[in-house]
Amino acid sequence: MIIKILGSGCKNCDALKENTEAALKEAGIEAEIIKVQDMKDIVSYGVMQTPALVIDEKVASFGKVLKSKDIIKILEKI
Question: Catalytic site residues?
């Protein structure tokens, strides 16, 4: 599983990355986390608000910092 955090590197982007790492650890799931900061790449996903969470090339969330429990719920559906 590849998870991408899309954003400019702001504190919300960092918080989403930390919450994603916590969710993966809590759920016992291994995944690679990649931060994407290039605006051309971010726009290519159709995302107009950051931070965004992309799981296996599908946008799962954008424009908010999800809590780890919310990320776990998304991961369980996949």
Answer: 10, 13
- Cβ atoms within 10 Å, residue 63: 11
> What pTM does this model have?
0.94
Helix extents (H) in 6-66: 11-27, 39-44
Contacts of 64 (CB under 8 A, 6+ apart): 51
Q: How crowded is residue 21: how many other Cβ atoms within 10 Å of its Cβ?
A: 16
Query: Does the pLDDT at position 48 exceed 90?
Result: no
Q: Are strands 2-6 and 32-36 parallel, antiparallel or unpaired?
A: parallel
User: How many angstroms separate the most distant Cα atoms in the chain?
Assistant: 33
